[in-house]
Amino acid sequence: FKGGDTCEYLLSSGRFLGEKVWQPHSCMMHKYKNSEAKNCLIDKHVVFIGDSRIRQLFYSFIKLINPQVKEEGIKHGNIPFEDKSASIKVDFLWYPEVNGSMRQRLKSWTESSVAKPHIIVVGAATWSIKIHNGSNEALAQYKINITSIAPLLEKLAISSDVYWVLQDPVYEDMLSESRKMITNEKIDAYNEAAVRILNSSSRNSKAKVKVFSVSKLIAQETIMKSADGLHLPESSRDTNAMILMNVYCNKIMKPIDGSCCQPQPPLTLIQKIAFCFFTLSIFGYLIISLIHRNNYRKNKSCTDLESGEEKKPAISTPNVSTLEMLLHCFCKLGLIMTYFYLCDRANLFMKENKFYTHSSFFIPIVYILVLGVFYTENTKETKMLNREQTDEWKGWMQLVILIYHISGASTFLPVYMHIRVLVAAYLFQTGYGHFSYFWIKGDFGVYRVCQVLFRLNFLVVVLCIVMDRPYQFYYFVPLVTVWFMIIYATLAVWPQIVQKKANGNCLWHFGLLLKLICLLTCIYFLSYSQGAFEKIFSFWPLSKCFELNGNVYEWWFRWKLDRYVVFHGMLFAFIYLALQKHQMISEGKGDPLFSNRVSNVLLFISIVSFLTYSVWASSCKNKTECNELHPSVSVVQILAFILIRNIPGYVRSVYSSFFAWFGKISLELFICQYHIWLAADTKGILVLIPGYPMFNVLVSTFIFVCVAHEISQITNDLAQIVVPKDNSTLLKRLLCIAGFFSGLHFFSAMQDQSRH
């Protein structure tokens, strides 16, 4: 709530999540890879000055650049390091005491015309305590020496990043006899002197020596694992090096999951236009509401003195009510989008890294399953995959996916593989639902297509504008959208084969199967021809929608991961509807789907198949290999679940209203979680109430679910206005939408040009 500099928090405060994961206070720390570290430090000169503890930090730092480095340098001497490929120089200078020699070295950089180091990391004290046997005179001299070098460090801080590393505590019981005088009491006294003296002459200046005090907190938790009681264990010093890398590199590299030390991104031109639009909508709605209220007061029903009857107020015109509804929707949406922006683009709320434990994933799963079973009701119809059942299916899957994301369970491979099946099941329902609609209704009109596309994409388009993110970033919506268009094209292309036509002549069934075989062939070809796939989606304007980080590889990977499951959904719908038409299945209340014997056999096979897939997924050792098999085998568990859920008549006749309620807003929940439940584009967790993790999750979840529900209502209301049933009006609206996207593209091009 204090706001302020997240760099300061990164350097001074935090806590451990588990044993090895360090969580800075209020912000997220990025884990830098070697390539990222090199890109950040290219053409840079880094200097570490101090004793053996600083030498440890030096080695951990250069291992971030080159993991092959071994600690073979001279113990009490200077150690150079150079990475010629990136022109990086990192030097360790042996100055175990703050004295005249250290002062002379610092002074040479302030006076000389030689280029100064870009980063200077300094720290020393334990040698002064050891050599002078912890005497008070040594402490007094240390204060004098710190005072003499402080102006030099502050002068260097004008053009370089200068860090003073405070002394870590020691584990006194493990110290050797020659180091017994190094006590934590003495270390605290030396640290206090350094903090008080440094920056004393430049308190109002921006050029300050940064005090690296977080190492003390880390050491307090881990020094017991030290080999000699003085030097930190390797994991702790690696954490310190990573913190140092985050402090310097985050503002340069701008990693999504590294919110520490990152300034708030400036508003883009499109964001400013969106802000103006939502502001005008809010004012417009308020003005119209006031006008309507005044009109209502003027036309308020009053008694006619002559007849004694009540006069009815004048009815407002439909145009005004439509405009008011439109402004009302945009007014609410504007307030919601402001909350989105404040949560995940402004540095207003805290963000934290995820940390996975089995309990953080499985306990909430058990909790929601108990709640779901508690809210059990009878279905309105007992058909297989009826509306209540599919809503329930979407609902519990979405809740499991949300828990998976907030708990960081993607690091646990068995959970990851089961979640992949849930995502595939969503796509299976896409194939099943849209195929069933087109096959039964035969409605291939523009109105139906526009309604579906609007409902799927409205929220994502708004978020792309407000949050300055590419369309492909919200990968699931592009995936569902493209598959819907593929289903539509497959069935709408000549010859249009629908159930009514096929009932007249059975040969049409073979024609439809031929269409499905052609679709499967195209899917197979594109999945193994990355070049052809990328050529299709690299053409403008498709490239504007499906590129991420300058290429369509991410889109190809996402599409390929569940490439067959929509086809499986379509084929299942075709077979099910054919069986239903020929009355080969029984869907009466309480009746099993087939005869008792067949039902029992299918139920047994389904349970075995379901468990077999779970055993295979749980035994996965390599994510890449399992992802290769996933598209072909995920349908096994999906079909097994459908049969287990629908074969017994009683089970088919009930559903969970709790899960079904969430299922109706599952798309909004999936998209909204990116910014107002999670943080940093799903990489971290939003913290509204720091210090109380459970209470924070409760509050942020309540707001998140309410917002998702409200957006669902807004989308439904706007769909009725933006996509009318009248074809001529719809054509005008489509021209307006085309103009909107043309304007968006124009402003996007202007933005890109200004950035370059």
UniProtKB/TrEMBL annotation:
InterPro entries linked: Cas1_AcylTrans_dom (IPR012419), NXPE4_C (IPR057106)
Subcellular location: Golgi apparatus membrane
Top-level taxonomic group: Eukaryota
Membrane topology summary: Multi-pass membrane protein
Keyword terms: Acyltransferase, Glycoprotein, Golgi apparatus, Membrane, Transferase, Transmembrane, Transmembrane helix
GO molecular function terms noted in the UniProt entry: N-acetylneuraminate 9-O-acetyltransferase activity
Name of the top EC class for this enzyme: transferase
TM segment ranges: 269-291, 325-343, 355-375, 396-417, 452-468, 474-494, 506-526, 561-579, 600-617, 659-679, 685-709, 730-750
EC number: 2.3.1.45
Boundaries of every NXPE C-terminal domain copy: 22-72
An annotated GO BP: carbohydrate metabolic process
Pfam families, per database record: Cas1_AcylT, NXPE4_C
Chain ranges of the Cas1p 10 TM acyl transferase domain: 253-734
Catalysed reactions, as listed in the record: CMP-N-acetyl-beta-neuraminate + acetyl-CoA = CMP-N-acetyl-9-O-acetyl-beta-neuraminate + CoA; a ganglioside GD3 (d18:1(4E)) + acetyl-CoA = a ganglioside Ac-O-7-GD3(d18:1(4E)) + CoA; CMP-N-acetyl-beta-neuraminate + acetyl-CoA = CMP-N-acetyl-7-O-acetyl-beta-neuraminate + CoA
GO cellular component entries: Golgi membrane
Family: Belongs to the PC-esterase family. CASD1 subfamily.
Protein name: N-acetylneuraminate (7)9-O-acetyltransferase
